[in-house]
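quick one, 258 residues, struct below
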Amino acid sequence: MQLPGQPQALGAIGPAARDATEALLATAEGRKDAELSPDTANVFAAAQAAAALGTVGAHDPKTVATLMKLAADPARSQQARCGAAWGLGLLGPKAAAAVPALLGMLEAPGVKGYQEGRYQALKEIEWPRLPEHKLEFFATDPRGCALLALARIGTGAAAAATTMGKLYADASAEPFERWAAAEVLAVIGPAAAGEVERLARVLRDERTPAPAQVGVVHALAVVAPRVPAALAAIKEAATDGDRIVRLAAVEALREMKH
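---
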C-alpha cells in the first residue's frame, strides 16, 4: 500500500489513520518494505513514524513491543530512540510494560549545551499538569524523552519510583531532569509514598533549583496529601523561597483541601 505524506502528518490525524499502522511500524524499524517515506533511510522519518504510532497504532498489540525494542536498542540513532520513547508516552498507561526500556534510556549520557526542549519545559512550568512539549525540541535528547514518557504513562510507571527518587535528589543532576523526575512521582501517586521524607528534605534544601522544587511540591501534594510531614513542607514552601515555588505550594494546598 503506497501512502502519501509524512509520518508526522498521520500522527496528527490520530486514530483515524489506523490503517497506516503497519506502514508506520515498517518505517520506524527501518524495514525494506517501508512505504511511508520516499527516504526510508532517513533517521528522522523513522523517529517521526515511531512517535506517530503513539496515536495511530494504539489499537495494535505490536505497537508497544516494537517501540519498546527501538527505545531499548543502543545501536539505534538518538532520533529513533527519542521517537520511540515519545510514541510510548503518547500511548499512556497502555505502555506500562515499557517502563524498564525507558529507564534503560536514562543510562545514556546527559545532554550537553543548550537544549530548546528543556528550556521551554522549565519556562512553562504550571500546576497541575505537565506543559505541552514537541518532539522536534527533544529529537536528540533520549533522557529527556524517556522522562517525559514516564510522566505520561502515569500510575503504570510505579516501578520507576526508586530511580526517580534518586534523580530528583541528585544535587549534581540537571534542573530539568530533577524537575521531570519529581513530576513522574506526582503522576505515580500514592505508590511512591516511600519517597515522602526525601521529597520534604529536598524541598527544604535551599540549594535545590526552583524548578525541581516545583516538581517536588506537586509530588508531595499527590503522593502523600494527608501525611503531616508532606503538608508541613508544602506550607513552608508557600511562604518562603522563589515566587514560582510559592505559587505552586499555594495552589497545591488549595487542591489538597478538595
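The two ends are 53 Å apart (CA to CA).
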